[in-house]
Design goal:
This protein has 84 residues and is α+β, with helices and mostly antiparallel strands. The chain has one helix spanning 39-55; strands at 7-10, 13-16, 21-26, 30-35, 59-66, 69-76. The strands form two sheets. A four-stranded antiparallel β-sheet has the order 1-2-3-4, with no helix packed on it. The protein is elongated. The mean pLDDT is 91.
Length: 84
């Protein structure tokens, strides 16, 4: 049997067809590996969490730049009392 290296899907994910797994790098230090048949459940759960965060009044989406790229991130909206 020939050795097949995992195939890069994006710059933070890859698929290993031999083991039927998908790897996803989360942040700088965490890698999640799922069997391909579990991936849609994971995706749906993350999508539901994102929707719930977007609906939360105390959370906003902000942006930042890194290496010339613009990224979005969730941020806690500070209380009015936090400002002088």
């Amino acid at each position: 049997m020939s050795q097949v290296s995992p195939k890069e899907l994006t710059d933070i994910s890859w698929i290993d067809l031999e083991s039927a797994t998908i790897g996803v790098l989360i942040g700088d230090r965490i890698t999640v590996t799922l069997y391909i048949d579990e991936f849609m459940d994971f995706f749906d759960s993350i999508s539901d969490i994102k929707s719930a965060l977007e609906a939360e009044s105390k959370i906003s989406i902000g942006t930042y730049e890194k290496d010339g790229n613009t990224y979005k991130q969730f941020m806690i909206v500070p209380d009015d009392d936090d400002f002088n």
